[in-house]
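Final report, Chapter 2: Outcomes

The project's central promise was a pipeline that accepts a single protein chain and returns its three-dimensional structure in a standardized token representation, suitable for archiving and comparison. That pipeline is now operational. To close this chapter, we reproduce one record exactly as it appears in the project archive, with the input sequence first and the structure output second.
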Amino acid sequence: MTSPPTVRYRALIADLVAASRRHETALTAAVQSHADGIATIEHDLAAADDAVVAATARMAHAQRLVAQTDLAAGALWDELKQVRGRRGRRLGPVPPPLPVPDSPTTTDPIALLESAAARIDRAQRGGEKLPPLILPLLFALGAACSAVVTLLAAFLQSQGPVGLLAGWLVLLGAPLSGLVPAGELADRWFGARLDPGAIALTILAGMLATTALTLA
């Protein structure tokens, strides 16, 4: 049985209303998705702008640090040349920076410059005063170094005529062999230089050790 026109008309109107609602729902969802996408893009752009600004600030700070480091290194290099006197002329210009090592921890350039400045200042003042504690160490170091050199000289003297000559030459320098390590000890551990008394003590210990081993 065919439906009356009024019934069919009402069904068509209902379908049209349902389709219109589905369209409005889909349109609202599309508009909201578009707005969310725009907001996400704007947020990402703002974060990128902040990262660029932060990176630019870090780069500017690094450039200022490099410039200050270069100036400080140049000033310290000039002071070092003055401290070394005539030998300082052979130093030439400031050496180029070394490549950064691949290790995860890098040395602070400011700390290195401060250490260099402290050592140059000590050199200008002639070093700190030797503490009394270092004197027994210098005596023991002079005796130990001389003993080693004396034993080396004895070994060379047993190697024939050439070794005998070389052994006597080495033996002559045995009492003085402790001066270099003694100077390093005084400089690195105590920030001081060997005074005449410390030098004489080190040589005396070397002479005693050399004499004792030679006569043994």
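Archive annotation: The mean pLDDT is 81.
This record, like all others produced under the grant, will remain available to the consortium after the project formally closes.
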